[in-house]
Amino acid sequence: MNKKEAQELLDKYAANLCTPEEKAIVERWYAKESAAQPEPIVNDLDQTKAEIWTGLQEPGLAAEERKPRFKLWIAAASLLFMLMGAGFYFYTLRPEPSFIAAGQTGADQLPGRNEAILVLADGSRIILGQAAKGTLATEGNTLISKVDEGQLNYKASVKDSKTSNAIPKYNTISTPKGGQYRVVLPDGTIVWLNAASSIRFPTSFDAAQRNVELTGEAYFEVAVNRAKPFNVAAGKTNVRVLGTHFNVMAYPDEASVNTTLLEGSVKVSTDKTEGILRPGEQAQALNGKIAIKMVDPEEAVAWKKGYFYFKDADIRTVMRQVSRWYDVEVEYQGNVQKMAFSGKMYRNVDILKMLEALSYFNVDYKLVDTRKEKGKNTIVIK
To answer: How far out from the chain centre does Cα 226 lie?
Structure first.
């Protein structure tokens, strides 16, 4: 059993999706390892797997091993993990931790949702989370429809697709903090918008090229059309493709504009330089310069798949993502401890569970109700 299989097995156990045989594997392994050491090693599953499968029918299998603390431990293990050298370790829970500090609200802060605002060419606004499914507007010969919760479709008519001299009409879709949305552009390109992001685009592309403007973060699956390049302008960085899958992160509060390629190839350029990306590479554009390096693409697109994924990230990097997704303010007091965070966590949990996970890294925090003063809660990190 490799690391990925072990992680998937723990995820299934935490979600109560395991078969009886899989439950037995996890529980027998935990009972064996917890008696020997405080931090079970996932690689040791290989050493006990065969013995467990042959002894599944033993009377009272794991009957006294299924304790509440074990269930909590597995839940944490499925969320937080660390790569330590050649071993794959999980952090155990501290007994009865206290998460609500003085001055901290006990109310759950819900995670983000499918929410965005559509601004039409005439400036009128449609709140997509409140709009009913069906046709929302018509721009020229392009039909704009909400086809599902969280998805907007642009469909250009045959007549419109052959029209190249018409003055383009531009639409903008913006997500707030705590929002995300998906849009299918007139050419069939699919765009996933992360929280606090916006994309501006013509309701029909001209005959020569397909240009869009991005602020924040988006994942693109570009419809192939070698005769019409697809260009993403993110500040002073431009990404040019013919048809491929890539992610662009261009938040104003991040140090660089990061373009991560999953499939195909793209050209990333600034006013000073340019570079060609291959799958698994990321271009980091800063001050007109571009640095290209190999990365784990999963880390860049984890948000699209519904989870946070950090690799050796500092607390401020982590909290910027938390702030955008949960729509909270973050304040730092005193000398905040320097540490690196590595792990995964689903984005559909409330904020207290997210902070609970961070507390296992000894993060000193409190969630303060500042909704009257700021319109949102504040996380204070010490």
So the answer is: 30
Residues 62, 24 contacting (CB under 8 angstroms): yes
CATH class belonging to 113-300: mainly beta
Report the predicted TM-score, pTM, of the whole model to 2 decimal places: 0.73
The candidate with the shortest Cα–Cα distance to 218, out of 169, 186, 253, 179, is 179
Q: What is the pLDDT of residues 241-250, one digit of tens each?
A: 988 999 999 9
Strand partners, 260: 247, 282
Residue spans per domain, the chain: 3-90, 113-300, 309-381
What is the Cα–Cα distance from 155 to 222, expressed in whole angstroms?
15
For 252-301, the pLDDT digits (tens) are 999 999 999 999 999 999 999 999 999 999 999 999 999 999 999 999 99
Long-range contacts of 258-264 (CB under 8 A, 24+ apart): 258/282, 258/283, 258/284, 258/285, 258/300, 259/283, 259/285, 260/295, 260/297, 260/300, 260/301, 261/297, 262/297, 262/301
What is the C-alpha radius of gyration for the chain, rounded to an integer number of angstroms? 24
Considering the domain 309-381, what is its CATH architecture? 3-Layer(bab) Sandwich (3.55)
Q: Which two tokens stand for residue 52?
A: 């467990």
